[in-house]
Design goal:
Length: 555
């Protein structure tokens, strides 16, 4: 029998089969170039040849997923295209996908949607179509069976790497989310104190700064359609024609953008993503380049990354250079508090240990916000004794339209039938909470007239058990004299709980704690929330400045 004559396409197919068996996978560009070099075909014919080979199942295509300039990946039929192969191909052709894959691997196969937005330099999807969106990138990886999305109980989105093309079982999935959520909290746990340090260092202006909040670490700040851990403005313009004193508008000031990574090492992918976002921001104005000052705060980084920061003119600070070498211990211990609160294990001892570390490091003044957070944990035992069989939720965010507030605790009690909203202010002795108004943060009227107004409205149609709305405001500081009448008014209002007075200051708090057997908490407040030695009057009241305490939900 006469042998069938081989066609030109048969020769091409043989070449492509051998080529992909040798390399396992190649980008479309590389495959086309090798065909052209071997057979001297035109680029258009090379594309057709490859297309026919795919149709005949000689080789396999990644279609519909593309990897840079609309390119497919072609691979050997016997080869299972894995995430490592894709990572090698996209490193140069699609850097955002490469950075996302590397970040997944750094974080044990999970990243939050917000972290993915940063690492891919993706824009706010509602406002931009010029740059690849994160959802488009996720679709590419999902089609290849590499990742899937999951939301936690707080509606935070996570991107999770599959194992052998399968989603994780529920226990493993929940554990990954829980561990990673804690890392996210660590990353922004010191944000308020970092911002205050930058203000005191005259790097940013204290009139307007926005930052990622530890109470909702799955959200960040948006500026110019891009996502940042924080941004502010600076009047420190250097020596030029516009002096700082004359930089009276944001247009004349320098935009300061922050990248903060404390839970893990600050790597080259973090830096490259930050640089990509900065470049997009600078080029967003056609008439003139935006004045931008990038700042990186990190726990650790390699020498290579550090020198790349310097080469690109980026200001960077190791967190220990700001708060001292004991900050690592403080971060580590603080990260364990939510779990200790949940399991009710040695919470007061852990809080005391952290407060002592802060005191011994000499950073009590610099770590004001962290000390305020520790006060919230310190008060958990006392509040639990008032409502022993109640449900406690920490850092509850309520939002209606543009109105939003974070409550330190929301207590759901059946005996008495109350829904109690708690505000805690861990301030040192010698500071005073003011009466204020609904526009002045960290004041009594801000909490009772504005925040509680939101709470009542929010639960109007969500209170199926008809629990009575109550409020408690506790501080380790005092109150200005002009608050006396308002405090009496609140004590006689419907906000008064059956278990506690509505507004409690330092003196009464210490008396209540001593009376109810919380003598250790009394000692801690007297030791760690007292006046700082050598402090001036202006420093003592600095915390109470409305500019000093940023928005409850600054994103």
């Amino acid at each position: 029998m006469e042998n069938k004559k081989l066609t030109a396409q048969d020769n091409y197919n043989t070449f492509l089969s051998v080529l992909l068996h040798e390399h396992l996978f190649l980008s479309a560009k590389d495959v086309h170039e090798k065909l052209i070099a071997k057979f001297s075909v035109t680029p258009d014919n090379a594309r057709k040849i490859v297309g026919r080979a795919v149709t005949k199942s000689i080789i396999t295509s990644s279609k519909p997923s593309t990897f840079g300039n609309g390119q497919f990946i072609y691979y050997c039929n016997t080869y299972l295209l894995d995430i490592e192969a894709v990572k090698k191909i996209v490193e140069k052709s699609r850097p955002p996908i490469y950075r996302l894959i590397v970040l997944l691997q750094i974080n044990d196969g999970i990243v939050s949607y917000y972290e993915a937005l940063k690492i891919t330099a993706a824009p706010n999807e509602d406002n931009s179509t010029k740059i690849s969106s994160l959802d488009d990138i996720i679709k590419v990886l999902s089609r290849l069976d590499f990742v899937y999305e999951k939301r936690d109980k707080n509606n935070n989105r996570f991107i999770i790497q599959k194992e052998f093309s399968q989603v994780l079982d529920k226990p493993e999935e929940n554990l990954k989310i829980s561990i990673h959520h804690q890392k996210m909290i660590i990353d922004c746990s010191l944000m308020p104190d970092i911002m205050n340090w930058l203000v005191n260092s005259n790097i940013i202006d204290n009139a307007s700064f926005i930052y990622r909040n530890k109470s909702n670490p799955g959200m960040g700040t948006i500026h110019n359609n891009l996502f940042w851990d924080a941004y502010a403005y600076s009047k420190s313009t250097g020596i030029n024609e516009i002096l700082g004193a004359k930089a009276d508008s944001k247009e004349k000031q320098t935009l300061v953008v922050l990248d903060v990574v404390l839970a893990t090492e600050y790597s080259h992918i973090h830096l490259n993503a930050f640089l990509a976002r900065i470049q997009i921001n600078i080029n967003s104005v056609k008439s003139e380049k935006r004045k931008t000052l990038p700042v990186i705060i990190y726990r650790e980084c390699s020498k290579e990354v550090f020198f790349t920061m310097r080469k690109n003119g980026i200001i960077s600070f190791n967190i220990s250079a700001i708060f001292g070498s004991k900050i690592y211990e403080i971060i580590r211990k603080s990260s364990q508090l939510p779990l200790l609160l949940k399991n009710d294990q040695n919470l007061d001892q852990s809080v005391e240990s952290i407060l002592e570390t802060i005191k011994s490091s000499g950073q009590e003044g610099a770590l004001k916000d962290l000390r305020g957070t520790l006060f919230e944990y310190l008060m958990f035992g006392y509040l639990s004794s008032l409502y022993p069989r109640a449900g406690f939720e920490q850092n509850v965010i309520l939002k209606m339209g543009q109105r939003k507030h974070e409550f330190d605790y929301v207590i759901t009690s059946t005996h008495p039938a109350e829904l109690v909203f708690v505000e805690l202010k861990g301030l040192r002795d010698g500071t005073f909470v003011s009466l204020g108004d609904i526009d002045t943060k960290a004041t009594l009227k801000w909490f009772f007239n504005k925040s509680m107004g939101l709470a009542k409205e929010y639960y109007k149609d969500k209170n199926s058990k008809n629990l009575k709305i109550k409020a408690i405001f506790i501080t380790s500081a005092g109150f200005w004299k002009n608050t006396k009448e308002f405090i009496e008014e609140m004590e006689n209002s419907t906000f008064r709980s059956a278990k506690s007075k509505t507004i409690i200051g330092r003196k009464e708090l210490l008396e209540n704690l001593e009376k109810d057997g919380f003598s250790n908490e009394v000692k801690m407040i007297e030791k760690y929330y007292s006046n700082l030695e050598g402090e001036t009057e202006s420093e003592s009241n600095f915390y109470d400045d409305a500019m000093e305490e940023p928005d409850d939900l600054p994103f």
